[in-house]
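Journal club prep — side note

Before the paper discussion, L.F. wants everyone to see what a predicted structure for a comparable chain looks like in token form. Sequence:
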Amino acid sequence: MRVALISDIHGNFVALKAVLASLRASHVTQIVCLGDVATFGPQPLQVIRQLREMDIPIAMGNMDAWMLNPKPHAYRDENTRWITDIELWETEQLASSDLDYLRTFPSQVEVSLSSDTSLLCVHGSPRSDTDIVLATTPEDELERMLSDCQATVVAGGHTHTQMLRRFREMTVINPGSVGLAIERSSRTGEVISPPRAEYAVVGLEKGELWIEFRRVPYDVGELIRAARESGMVHAEWWINHWITE
């Protein structure tokens, strides 16, 4: 059995197409999405319609929930207003049927890999869709997040950072972000979004559990054109996130 894990698409249909093209040759049994499908990108409708057509299980992300009750974000820095404007614009693009679709997302998706091997898919952690799980998260904090969890593998998104770590008898992973991968520029120190789509595949074959992290390039020029043609507010500011050294 092979399960592809995608997460944090964030309205980037160009990146999603690249991942789906990569998966066609991977012979996966199932695709599971870990949430945050439509916000902060120029193509929320295209992403939602593609996911609906695929009919895959999707765990509710914190920004999926936000789209059902949108309100200005609390101030974090000078970019907060720009981000709020973009995400409110995206919500306005959705029809009532799209919002009804978001409401169907459960908080958790469980996949049985075998009779004694399970995969639990969430957005942040089983405790909260806003929990941040990193390679450096202290063990006592991870204990609070996973204390009631009995899964063999726990997969969460939210941080946009690929990760694998062991905790007790569990393997905890993050497949990274399909549509909004992040890294810090070695030249400026600023956080930028490289034009790559990240995902992971969890497999169980002949009793052997394996996990593979993947990164797929996509056409950033196509994404920039989509942003400019979409009518998205603050499009040029948004585009600057994809300018790399």
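L.F.'s comment for the group: The CA atoms of residues 22 and 216 lie 7 Å apart. Keep this in mind when we get to the figures.
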